[in-house]
Design brief:
about 500 residues, alpha/beta, Rossmann fold, 17 helices, globular, binds adenosine-5'-diphosphate-glucose, glycosyltransferase, Starch_synth_cat_dom
Length: about 500
């Protein structure tokens, strides 16, 4: 099969979070199974060019219609650890992708509407006719709309779209300017409840809703979150739309790329190990402590890696720092915030705890350090308010860092409480789960985890090894995506 992914991220060249990991990891697994995969991305000025091989101009002067005129683009092509990627570089005064950031601009809607349009124009003009176009999140929600309203009539009538929602909270709420810019035009047609009209604001368009309505199949990134989005509050207003399209909606649990995340071969960690050589992990803990100037006592090391965002339960992350110190544990945090208030809050804590030998707070995005943290940590916390899938608990499991998670979304599909789980035998349990959002709930789970580490080290090690034995690779999810692709292809 020939699959084209259209996305705003692909790790490690463009990675703001888990979306990048998924686009890369799924593409690699599909290619390993003999399918052809190409990835279309924006050419951001701030992407990690050091992760691209053979970058060259593949198409010059791609004319993308925009507001009745056109924007000229060059399309570059290169390999990101074996994946063939096309990078769209528009020449316009808007400087859509030369902002020194991936997201967070006032005109994000227009930037990614343009990207969606340009990606389809590129496919059309280069005669690329994939069996399936797989697009992701609100940034590419317009792709199926444009495909089925415009490009279908210009020679792309056989293409099918699979649309994956990684985060329902960000939906691309726009004004009608995206319609006029992209050539969709007919305002009254799209401002309809069964098309792109926002469920909360009848005078706004919702790009994610467009993705749901027009795609041939929609997935979110875990079965439990699919349920939450459909029946609970986590659809952020799109539950009704999901309900109307439930026949083409499902949850596919993400995987993690076991070549990137592999403690036996990770190029960013000094000591390789697996379940049989688990004691080597302790050397990584020492290396992490040395790198971060932490003390070397006999203490468990608890880590948080992730975006610092309300989604992630930042109030509980903050509480965990002080609870860990109170319980004679060490804490390492690696995170970045887009909200200034959250950023300042954690910067303040960083200054406050700067000289504490048991705590290190690193604000920023650091792929290399994240690997060493997973390898060095005894426990990894994920106290999210909501979590469509969550990759950090799966990476933690793979590195023998026991996850302590809140029981929501994909966390419930992947972590099974050591002490209280009705569905898994004790030897299949792999972490700790709590349910409420208050600090006592977090403490109750951390207390059990730290207690086991101190008082029953052998049992703690067994728990970590049980986690390492889980298979959260892309093997199963890729099989599920392939059957979705086959299904929509023949419809
Ligand atoms: N400061 C930092 N430095 C280095 N690395 C960092 C980092 N902050 C985060 N990362 C890395 O980025 C990834 C984050 O994964 P998450 O599952 O938390 O994704 P996120 O919430 O961004 O995305 C959404 O999409 C993903 C993928 O579908 C879903 O799992 C998730 O639930 C959903 O919210 C991990 O690989 C992590 O190591």
């Amino acid at each position: 099969m020939y699959i084209v992914q259209i996305a705003s991220e692909c790790a490690p060249v463009i990675k703001a979070g888990g979306l990048g990991d998924v686009v890369y990891g799924l593409s690699r697994e599909l290619e390993l199974r003999g399918h052809t995969v190409e990835i279309i991305l924006p050419k951001y000025d701030c992407m990690r060019y050091d992760h691209i091989w053979g970058l060259h101009e593949a198409y010059r002067d791609l004319v993308v219609p925009w507001y009745g005129a056109a924007i000229y683009c060059d399309v570059y092509c290169g390999w990101v650890y074996g994946r063939l990627c096309f990078f769209i570089d528009p020449h316009s005064e808007d400087l859509f992708f030369n902002r020194s950031c991936y997201y967070g601009c006032n005109d994000d809607n227009m930037r990614f509407a343009f990207f969606s349009k340009a990606a389809l124009e590129f496919l059309l003009l280069t005669n690329k006719r994939p069996d399936v176009i797989h697009c992701h999140d609100w940034q590419t929600g317009l792709v199926p709309v444009l495909l089925f309203e415009i490009y279908k009539y210009h020679g792309m009538e056989y293409q099918r779209v699979c649309y994956t929602i990684h985060n329902f909270k960000h939906q691309g709420i726009s004004g009608c300017d995206v319609l006029w810019a992209t050539g969709l035009n007919k305002e009254s047609y799209y401002f309809a409840d069964d098309r792109l009209q926002d469920p909360f604001n009848p005078f706004a368009l919702n790009l994610m809703k467009g993705g749901i309505v027009y795609s041939n199949f929609i997935t979110t990134v875990s079965p439990h979150h699919a349920w939450e989005a459909h029946y609970g509050d986590f659809g952020y207003g799109l539950g009704h739309t999901i309900h109307e399209h439930q026949h083409k909606f499902g949850g596919v649990l993400n995987g993690i790329d076991y070549e990137v995340w592999n403690p036996q071969a990770d190029r960013y960690i000094p000591h390789h190990y697996d379940a049989d050589t688990f004691t080597e992990k302790a050397k990584n803990k020492q290396a992490l402590r040395e790198q971060l100037w932490l003390g070397h006592g006999d203490k468990p090391l608890i880590a948080y890696v992730g975006r610092l965002d309300q989604q992630k339960g930042v109030h509980l992350v903050h509480h965990a720092i002080y609870y860990a110190l109170y319980r004679q544990a060490q804490f390492v945090l690696l995170g970045s915030a887009t909200e200034t208030a959250i950023n300042n809050w954690f910067l303040h804590e960083k200054n406050h705890l700067n000289n504490n030998p048991d705590c290190h707070i690193e604000i920023g995005f650091n792929e290399e350090l994240s690997h060493l943290i997973y390898a060095g940590a005894d426990l990894i916390i994920v106290p999210s308010n909501y979590e469509p899938c969550g990759l950090t608990q799966m990476i933690g499991l793979q590195y023998g860092a026991v996850p302590v998670v809140r029981g929501v979304g994909g966390l419930l599909n992947t972590v099974f409480d050591r002490d209280y789980d009705n569905y898994h035998e004790p030897e299949k349990r792999n972490g700790y789960v709590f349910f409420q959002t208050d600090s006592q709930a977090l403490e109750s789970a951390l207390d059990r985890a730290i207690g086991l580490w101190y008082h029953y080290p052998k049992k703690f090690q067994n728990l970590a090894i049980q986690g390492m034995e889980y298979d959260y690779s892309w093997s199963n999810p890729a099989t599920q995506y392939l059957s979705i692709y086959e299904y929509i292809r023949h419809k």
